Amino acid sequence: MKKLRVGIEGGAGFAGGELIRLLLGHPRVEIAAATSATFPGQPVFLAHPNLRGRTDLAFARKLDYGSLDCLFLAGGHGDAMGDVPAILRAAGPRLRVIDLSGDFRLKDPALYPRWYTREHKAPEYLKKFAYGLVELNRGEIRRSRLIANPGCFATATALALGPLARGGARGVVSVTAVTGSSGSGASPSAITHHPTRHSNLRAYKPFVHQHIPEIEQVLERLGGGRNLRVSLVPVSGPFARGIYAVCQLDLPKGWTEAKVVGLYRDAYAGSAFVRLTPEPPSLNAVAGSNHCDVFVAVADGRIAVISAIDNLVKGASGQAVQNLNVMMGWDETLGLSFAGTYP
Amino acid sequence: MKKLRVGIEGGAGFAGGELIRLLLGHPRVEIAAATSATFPGQPVFLAHPNLRGRTDLAFARKLDYGSLDCLFLAGGHGDAMGDVPAILRAAGPRLRVIDLSGDFRLKDPALYPRWYTREHKAPEYLKKFAYGLVELNRGEIRRSRLIANPGCFATATALALGPLARGGARGVVSVTAVTGSSGSGASPSAITHHPTRHSNLRAYKPFVHQHIPEIEQVLERLGGGRNLRVSLVPVSGPFARGIYAVCQLDLPKGWTEAKVVGLYRDAYAGSAFVRLTPEPPSLNAVAGSNHCDVFVAVADGRIAVISAIDNLVKGASGQAVQNLNVMMGWDETLGLSFAGTYP
Amino acid sequence: MKKLRVGIEGGAGFAGGELIRLLLGHPRVEIAAATSATFPGQPVFLAHPNLRGRTDLAFARKLDYGSLDCLFLAGGHGDAMGDVPAILRAAGPRLRVIDLSGDFRLKDPALYPRWYTREHKAPEYLKKFAYGLVELNRGEIRRSRLIANPGCFATATALALGPLARGGARGVVSVTAVTGSSGSGASPSAITHHPTRHSNLRAYKPFVHQHIPEIEQVLERLGGGRNLRVSLVPVSGPFARGIYAVCQLDLPKGWTEAKVVGLYRDAYAGSAFVRLTPEPPSLNAVAGSNHCDVFVAVADGRIAVISAIDNLVKGASGQAVQNLNVMMGWDETLGLSFAGTYP
Amino acid sequence: MKKLRVGIEGGAGFAGGELIRLLLGHPRVEIAAATSATFPGQPVFLAHPNLRGRTDLAFARKLDYGSLDCLFLAGGHGDAMGDVPAILRAAGPRLRVIDLSGDFRLKDPALYPRWYTREHKAPEYLKKFAYGLVELNRGEIRRSRLIANPGCFATATALALGPLARGGARGVVSVTAVTGSSGSGASPSAITHHPTRHSNLRAYKPFVHQHIPEIEQVLERLGGGRNLRVSLVPVSGPFARGIYAVCQLDLPKGWTEAKVVGLYRDAYAGSAFVRLTPEPPSLNAVAGSNHCDVFVAVADGRIAVISAIDNLVKGASGQAVQNLNVMMGWDETLGLSFAGTYP
């Protein structure tokens, strides 16, 4: 069986490394090349020491787009919107693209200046990209060749709230979501300086994180209107991997606990990766895997939904592979069918 | 100057050790004795290795209550309510008591069976204990000899929300609060097992933590009615010290950001320990100190209040010393006038 | 192809959970049953939440040894020596056994009272078990049905020193080896209490750890005599997974750096799992994988050898699977051919 | 009583922040000014959020050396050697200087090119600086106005080995010493990037760390010759504060355990900060304090000495304050008489 030839733009970052790790174990994919501006010509294990001895791949300077079946864009936010039009002109419309940045996630170009502080450079492409949150958008992904891979906070929160949106819930949802440091990428910075990140918690961008419109867009589509508003306070946590999202809202009038639980059971009944848990989830039960654990509680007129993912797997590269599988019509779990490590 | 003779019941736990550490540096206090059922007759540094060489104190089996000026109760929840009546009979009403457990925090005895799963054994004392959240109840503490020292989640959350309550805010507050593992005490258990606590987050007791009625009692008193309801999801965090509370609510109709900020400035203007911060606080900026850092943001009709404390200092033993200072009419900061370590 | 039926005694511990995780991904193995005294009849994901949704397996109370092709013993030290004779009588000599405890690692029964504080209960079996450090004892393992799976400190240290022993080095090796908390098992105890394990280092059993004779036995066999003596100080580290061993010794007279490096290249030339690194290894480059990274430096008449493993994989369950593969004559990497997660 | 006016050059780094924290609690010292090139004119709490509300001090651009009684140099390695001559010319010989860098620690200028990769710019000052390891060099410090404050690895290792050197021990000492990330300073870099430092251990500069000649110089002086050689492998650890040094050597011929223990008792009998422990020390028992815990074991012809310090306190700023106290003829413990936090 001929393997699918994939390329990775931005292979030296954490999402790039995770993509390489996952794709090396994928039975139907061959990594044709992965680029790095920092390590051109060097073995990938220089950036990702876990891959030493597991691949002979060296970083390329550039990709030959025409030779690829699928391209993963794992560079920084803002790059993809500039590059995609030219890439598609060069490669032709046959090329599948999965963009891990935020550049093609929002349908409305007017949102970019506000949430990403830049005008969108290729607004005509926004409608062409399917939003790659498989469990809530599988049909569109299956029909697409261009995928906007969701953000990590967005994945955890939208999976937590999607069933409620679909059920017609309304109101404001208070979300506190804690992220691991790998979400800030492979380049050192003040917010990932170990002495001050260690044993610390620090909220940032309260109410103004760029994943808010992304989550609301998902919920609006599922609910048929802007019924749920997301009030998000992100928090930097003292661990490397994971997003832990705690969501609270009022139980809609007339709803029962049974109805709420039913919405979640229905939404994720056939899902290989979303697991409903009878107790609040543990972040370390999903770390290293493509799973999202979701817990829902109803009491005294309130709903709490708590979700946990690995930000680099289900929140980035694992989900990208899952999108590839769905796009290709393959078993959705190919190359992703493993548990994380625990403890 | 004759020093105040204090005793500590339960000196081998984490709160007990922190009390000893703090009181050793208090200029007007002498530790007469500290008890431990586990280490009777042994030097305190066996339980608290940081105290090696800093004191010759050994754990006592029992205290001579009559010889004490002040007694700190740092044992488990449920012990104090059984012991206090006999202690006060033995020692006479002159003895000051600061109870670090939850046994005398709630005014309404009917709340104990629900939130602490036990009938209260000395309900006639509940009204005699002042609630020791100094910044919001200084006057009553000054006039009292019996103090119920607040819980750690309650301290962080009530300091975050007190100014809003006093200002007349109404509604439901969504609180997600993350706690360090030292809050679970010095005895090993499944929830503090390092392999699974490390790098993990895990919510527990959503909506049913026993600090909820304690917080609501404070807010009710400040607001003159049950105007604010606390919807709390506690989370176990992968660090040893701290409570980080993220509170969200709707901005009351007609309120402005300026009004909200003014409430906080007024509430904490003269406070030595509560610090208003222009950015969300860092937990490690308060760790090791009696400070509580509070940040408030208003945007799009929402309020976020974020507070950070060290659960063993401001959330337990430091606050107990602060209560002692206020009761005695001393400078509130005696023995507490230091910064924490950073980083 | 008919799969090998394996059973796991002690499936609820960390090594047991890791075995189940690994064997679920092994193409030629079927887990017939795993026992737990704590969770009999319960799904395995109650003990190992990472396995939720990945298997329907529930813990058994007992194993039917006669129905198994291979038995993994993952219970506590001291159990296996009591059970193995009866198990083999019941199952017959056809049963393969891989014991993860220390019970059959030492050839000399006289060592047990000293290092394990108990008389050996089945000394006649000590010679029948092959020591399962594959890279240094592959031949014997291939011919055996009974395997003593090495200890975690022993694996890291023996792989670090084996090439030197084989080359005829003599002298005392100073070893400082730091272990993650998962090495202490799934039951909470004072040494794994998160508040005091977090951010801490603490040496224990200096010069008297029970893995010392195990390491020296390997080295003696490779060197043809008691040429290398291991002086080991184990240290408890503030992370969940890993052993990091730093070994130092005098460069033998007449030896050169080239000779030392050559010994390592020769020893591990065909090894899939031992990776020689040009810089000191990072623990997180091997975590989650069956790799052992080894670095060697020579300067000023001294040799430093530094090795890193995941204590639960190469230091326990991964090595057990590797032993199974070798015993069965399969590709040694079956079910183990993956990188760990990084970061 | 008039307070001593001190200035701090490099007040925004971790050592600078710790100096400010400690000196704010020192009864006989007033901080005249602290400089920062990054935060000139800004309040010190911008760099050190633990100090918010504890001081009104703002960072200065420059110091007026002539107005100071004592100057702490807490800038980077290599700055002090260039600045000290001009500073002393400007301020006159009355100014006391405590340099926290490595610039004046080595007596032999020829060592600088090799270990610090630069020629020394003011070699004539090397003999004028006293080496500020108080417990082993108190007399010289008392008579000096210029102090070279020891390095963190050097402090932990020299305190561990000093008594042996003084007793005449000979041989090679194998040292593995693990450091917290704060030792790398306040500027983010690849080695302090949280995602990869977290849960990791990584050795670096084996046998070639610049603290080696510093330790050997101390030991040579105590032993009256180059009797002990230090073979050091430093390791980066996943915690913020601390140095944990494990030292091993052969028991000298004819020595007994009693003799070894006696050497340590004699050396540290009157010491307020060095504590001999009957079990291997815990790093978290010294964190936040100026203590050094030292444990010594003798078995089978080997000696293990294990020491633990807080790298920013006893390993840097606390020791600098201790040096000031000794220089001034004050009680050595002024401003340092507190336990660290535990847990």
As a percent range, the share of strand residues of chain A is 15-25%
Spatial strand order of the main sheet of chain A: 8-9-7-10-13-12-11
Number of H/I helices of chain A: 9
In one word, what is the shape of chain A?
A: globular
Biggest interface in this structure?
C-D, 46 and 45 residues
The helix content of chain A is 25-40%
The ordered H/E elements of chain A are EHEEHEHEHEHEHEHEEHEEEH
pLDDT averaged residue by residue of chain A:
97
Tell me the number of structural domains of chain A: 2
User: What is the terminal separation of chain A in angstroms?
Assistant: 37 Å
Structure description:
- Chain A is α/β, with parallel strands linked by helices and 343 residues long.
- Chain A has 2 domains: 4-128, 3-Layer(aba) Sandwich (Rossmann fold); 153-311, Dihydrodipicolinate Reductase, domain 2 (2-Layer Sandwich).
- Chain A contains 9 helices and 13 strands.
- The first copy, chain A, has helices at residues 14-24, 79-91, 111-116, 134-142, 152-166, 194-197, 211-223, 257-268, 313-328; strands at 4-9, 29-34, 70-73, 96-99, 130-131, 146-148, 171-179, 202-203, 228-236, 243-250, 274-276, 292-299, 302-309.
- In chain A, the strands form 2 sheets. Chain A has a 7-stranded mixed sheet with strand order 8-9-7-10-13-12-11. Chain A has a 6-stranded parallel sheet with strand order 2-1-3-4-6-5, covered by helices on one side.
- The radius of gyration of chain A is 19 Å and the shape is globular.
- The model of chain A has no long low-confidence stretch (mean pLDDT 97).
- Chains C and D meet through strand 7, strand 8, strand 9, strand 10 and strand 12 of C and strand 7, strand 8, strand 9, strand 10 and strand 12 of D.
